[in-house]
Amino acid sequence: MTPARRVVTLPPTVLGDDAVRFARDGQRRGAEVLEIRTDLHAPDAVSPEALAAVLPLLVSERGKPVPDAWAAAAWRVDRDLLDASGQHASLAAPPGKLLASHHASRPLSTEEALQLWEREVPADALVKHVEPMTDPAHVRTLLETQRRMVERFGVTRVTVLGMGAVALPTRTLLARNNVLDYVATGGTWAAAPGQRLLDDVVRELRGADRYTLEPPLRLGILGTSIVHSRSPRIHRQPFDRIDLPEDGPVEAMVDALLPHYAGFAVTSPFKLRLAKHTGSALDAINTLVRRGTRWESFNTDTFGAHKVLERLGAREVFVLGDGGATAALRTMAKDTGCTLRVLRRADIQAPLTGAGVWTWPDRVPAPDDLRFDGARVAVIAYGAPGRRIAAEIVRRGGTPVLLGAAWFIAQARQQRQLWESAT
User: Fold this and answer.
1) What are 388-407's pLDDT values in tens digits?
2) Is residue 388 part of a domain?
3) Do 42 and 181 fall within a single domain?
4) Can you tell me which residues the record assigns to a coiled coil (predicted)?
5) Residue (of 212, 269, 203) closest to 236 by Cα position
6) What DSSP line would sit under 10-37, residue for residue?
């Protein structure tokens, strides 16, 4: 199966010559199509000819009509099947350039979706069907909708997408048989919720020639605010960043994805919830491994915790926070001859001395009265979040000890061995 063509959407704040530079940067990083939308840019905000000279141009009509100059420069013109009143809309486009699309307002059954596509569509048109996702279990329906649409229109014409906070893993599965894969370039801009990062898609495709006709089961990381996670860089592909809200339906997510994923890395704030959901004897887990029709859970954070306590080399260590990482530290404290003093937010009343570990995620603000008196404080986050936590420790009178990479590598090695045993 030929990989889907990677589509990036021009952000609304990028205009003129900057738009051409954006297109060139996207092309350098692996984008294959550039989308411009009539709801994001005025007709004279960009030069369609200059953009089309860099990447094939997908022009999408969203509320405002497509300018003639855009249509002339376009590789494809995206027009919706229905107008705002629900009636058949015009599918007029230059010959060979139509992409007929439908953006549903609610999740549909496969039969409901197919009824929308009973309208006659030119034989040379691409077709795109998009639905919102509120329930991860809807992945089964969208995969069936895609299969039936491919039967009707042919494998070289169909794209089916889910959108929403729980849609990303569904989009990765649909991409195996889609013609187009709409991806985000990174930073704060995404054209739609649920898009994968362009760099992650390209990283996966570098190993695509190793895949057989049936692609391998995927791996992924589940968490909140995980854009800086290094897991996709070191684990075998395909490996997906699945970023959910803190109150997101992570339990339903792992259940729905059991047939499609070999395992997951689990990070904050889901370590305790998924331990309970999978019936683990552990208080917190960070690894799920598929065993036939069920998930088996593990906590390889203990390997990272051992490394951090070993590096601190202190007999007594205070721990800021009492979540999943602290559970791993408790497990390993005896092995390293260390006594832990776990401090919840309300327990902090005086400046802290000695050696400690900061377990709060970067997105969780520290207590206002937290102060250190020369304490050495291990930072177990890494990358930009780790640097921000380190700066906060300095501001409050402590000395940060950057051990996030040591923790991460130690636990990741064990995760890799476990995932290789998945069935």
Assistant:
1) 999 999 999 999 999 999 99
2) yes
3) yes
4) none
5) 203
6) --TT--HHHHHHHHHHHHHHT--EEEEE
